[in-house]
TrEMBL record:
Its EC number is 3.2.1.86. Gene3D superfamilies: Glycosidases (3.20.20.80). Signal peptide: none annotated. It is an enzyme of class 3 (hydrolase). PANTHER family: 6-PHOSPHO-BETA-GLUCOSIDASE ASCB-RELATED, GLYCOSYL HYDROLASE. The keyword Glycoprotein does not apply. The keyword Hydrolase applies. Keywords: Glycosidase, Hydrolase. One of its GO terms (biological process) is carbohydrate catabolic process. GO terms for cellular component: cytosol. SUPFAM superfamilies: (Trans)glycosidases. This is 6-phospho-beta-glucosidase. Belongs to the glycosyl hydrolase 1 family.
Amino acid sequence: MVNHYPEGFLWGGAVAANQCEGAYLEDGKGLSIQDVTPKGGLGVITPEPTEDNMKLVGIDFYHRYKEDIKLFAEMGFKVFRTSIAWSRIFPNGDDAIPNEKGLKFYDDLFDECLKYHIEPLVTVSHYETPLNLAKKYDGWRDRRLIGFYENYVRTIFTRYQDKVKYWLTFNEINSIIHAPFMSGGVMTEKEKLEMTDLYQAIHHELVASALATKIGHEIMPHAKIGCMVLGMPVYPLTPNPDDMIKTLERDRENLLFSDVQVRGKYPAYAKRLFKERNIKIKMELGDEEILKNTVDFVSFSYYMSICESADPTKKAGKGNLMGGIPNPYLKESEWGWQIDPKGLRYILNTLYDRYEKPLFIVENGLGAVDKLVEDENGNKTVIDDYRIKYLNDHLVQVAEAIEDGVELMGYTTWGCIDLVSASTAELKKRYGFIYVDRNDDGSGTLKRYKKKSFHWYKEVIATNGKSLVE
């Protein structure tokens, strides 16, 4: 097997504040959009937080982060991706003065990481727009959010400039097309949104991302600031040329977001897209200049590939945020996500060929129902060979991509410790190397247990990938 992971490769894991921290009103935190979606980002919005919302407690990372980071250090993490909850820093999003207790929490969290020589990789906005901004302004549809976001990034960049070297501006920014509330805090129902409204919100986010990149480079010249997209290869269902064209169009729908953030302008194909969908974006004077502030690297999540067809009778698969037709050659997870390790090599090559900028895989993993059992020594664990196989097979393909010439900074598995699912708000959909004793009915001790995959990943990191099996 080709296996040349570079020296200094950043191995680690990833979480999001809203899915693990809990403490949803503690120490001055305001409400976020996640606090009113008890069934997940694609479910109903409640007027106020309800007890059945698992995210209100999460896995209590807010109070247990020292214990958890110690476990990450035991695995040998070089990097830990997390997010800052915007409403911990500015409870309403449009406040003039930040919440000091919120700022102090992340000071302590990053210090704990650095104590173990773990680099924080921080997402500025990860599906947790302050609820007030959603209610008062309809989220990113309102241009004023750019100013509130700018105030937020200036605050955190200034505060953490000596602690955080790696930043991501928005999580899966392209997901707003399919999940406007979860991704962009847009309260207007998706079915009632005009395409112009949606792409205006997208434009505001893209301007904000470029502005954050500019500000970040000014405040922290040594830092690396990246974009983050939902990465998903699109294959034609058949060699029919109509399917090829449909695939091209679907690919571009996703790539538009990284094209703007990496190239600093809207791509030529956007003109036809906007014309045919009757999308009329209002650009302010100076927007085009701001967009020229391009990112240092491209990060992405990867869970699956999809197929596309011009045949309207072909139906999209279940459980997939971005739609897409199932591939007849692939198996799927318990949640209907198709498992395609070679698709990861494919998208790594595609993105690197397109941009020739360093890449970073910041989410990848298998959500599954895990069973806590006793091992031969009487210790509780999870025998998650299925997760080990999934990650091993994907990492083998990552090694192939590196051999292909792809410049890759690092790899962080999603949900390195069990957390609440973003799409469905379940805890039974587990991704972690560490089992958290909490159930979907809220019961459990919150105690942590090492799964079999914990020890497997520790070996992968220790050998810099040489322990992987083809």
